[in-house]
Write a structure and sequence with these properties.
Spo0b-associated Gtp-binding Protein, Chain: A, single chain, 19% helix, 18 strands, alpha/beta, six-stranded mixed beta sheet, Rossmann fold, GMP Synthetase, Chain A, domain 3, 9 helices, 3 domains
Length: 420
């Protein structure tokens, strides 16, 4: 099964919590706080692996979560940082955040791509010692790791893409000029998955050619199979438009030519801006008039035309030399640049306030790790909690909702009276 687009969830590891501890040793009185910091959570990293050609493994495993950092310990012992989670994907996989559509990474080379950062470890109580606070009884929790729903989309790395209607001879062409072994038969949609082949020319050059499953009218809108694979042409540097010049199936080759170019334009304008060569295939079964008619039509539109027969390999040498010559002047295969996450802080401090039976209920997931370390019986700990509520905007949000002094507030299960 060829799978080239999947949705998964990635979750970097949370940071370990800081420790609350006091030094105890014989003959040493009031040894002071010695709680260590928590360790950093593991990152989620993507790398390319040429042993994979589809995303089928991600169809069955949907969540990838890195390990959490260890908590800090007594005697100023720092928690151990967690190992990173490395996810292997086929080369050419583009990773997008589902919610915003931003590109996180384009895994096209041998670089390791950081997709989700692990949370920092929380500070132990030893870090909060000051001249005014000599015995803090609280620590900070670890920061949560980044978490995203992402879309993995495989866009094959090919220099040349073969476009055209089903059964025009694209598979026969790639089989004739490379070592690829696509399925070839005399019926439509024989090719159900893109096929890559390495082509070597007499000019001592080589390039990668992709046989894209046949397009039909309406493919850009979801008709047939072609719309599933148009994304694989996006990276190509050059398009070879294969047309059945013999019109053996009763279609008009010039009409076919216009329909396919229309589908490329409807999918994305970028595809129509790619250089294009027209290959009139099945010339061994066509008349000279048919070949000349398509030649004039293509050349009048500014495209170079090559009559070929993939079955007999006639004309393929001249076509390949022209492809190699054009590729030598074209920029490298398209690479998608990662986009910054501009709304990070806004999302990190999101909260929702509702009022039920006179109780102001605050739902704020970012407070969950902080709540674990709040000690209601410790004044310093409560002061820290109050500062968090103020800095995150929750106090202002409560005021906007109409809270009055003495009203009950519930923050993630912890209830207290509101005091100005």
């Amino acid at each position: 099964m060829f799978v080239d687009k999947v949705k998964i969830k990635i979750k970097a590891g949370d940071g370990g919590d800081g420790a609350v501890s006091f030094h105890r040793e014989k003959y040493v009185s009031a040894g002071g706080p010695d709680g260590g910091d928590g360790g950093k959570g593991g990152d989620v990293i993507f790398i390319a692996d040429d042993n994979f050609s589809t995303l089928i493994d991600f169809k069955y495993k949907k969540k990838y979560e890195a390990a959490r950092g260890e908590n800090g310990g007594a005697k100023n012992c720092y928690g151990k940082s967690a190992a990173n989670l490395t996810v292997k994907v086929p080369r050419g996989t583009v990773i997008r955040e589902e919610e915003s559509g931003r590109i996180i990474a384009d895994v096209s080379d041998n670089i390791q791509y950081l997709a989700a950062r692990g949370g920092k470890g929380g500070k132990g109580n030893a870090a909060f010692v000051s001249s005014r606070r000599q015995a803090p009884t609280f620590s900070k929790p670890g920061f949560p790791g980044e978490e995203f729903d992402v879309i993995l989309e495989l866009k094959m790395l090919a220099d040349v893409g073969l476009a055209g209607f089903p059964n025009v001879g694209k598979s026969s062409l790639i089989a004739a000029v490379s070592a690829a072994k696509p399925v070839i038969a005399d019926y439509h949609f024989t090719t159900l998955t893109p096929v890559l082949g390495v082509v070597r020319t007499d000019m001592e050059q080589s390039f990668v050619m992709a046989d894209i499953p046949g397009l039909i009218e309406g493919a850009s809108g979801g008709v047939g199979l072609g719309h599933e694979f148009l994304r694989h042409i996006e990276r190509c540097r050059l398009i070879v438009h294969v047309v059945d010049v013999s019109e053996i199936e009763g279609r008009d080759c010039m009409e076919d030519f216009d329909i396919i170019n229309g589908e490329l334009q409807n999918f994305t304008v970028d595809l129509t801006e790619l250089p294009q060569i027209v290959a009139g295939n099945k010339c061994d079964m066509a008349s000279d008039e048919q070949v000349q008619k398509l030649r004039e039509y293509a050349e009048n539109k500014g495209f170079k035309f090559f009559p070929i027969s993939a079955a007999t390999k006639s004309g393929t040498k001249e076509l390949l030399n022209e492809i190699a010559e054009q590729l030598s002047t074209l920029p490298p295969i398209k690479k998608y640049e990662a986009e910054p996450f501009v709304a990070e802080m806004k999302r990190k401090n999101e909260f929702k306030i509702t009022v039920e039976d006179g109780v102001y209920i605050v739902d704020a997931k970012f407070l969950e790790p902080i709540m674990r370390t709040v000690n209601p019986d410790d004044y310093s700990s409560l002061q820290y909690f109050q500062r968090v509520l103020i800095s995150s905007g929750i106090i202002d949000g409560l005021r906007e909702k109409g809270v009055d002094e003495g009203d009950t507030v519930n923050v993630m299960g912890m209830e207290f009276d509101f005091i100005e």
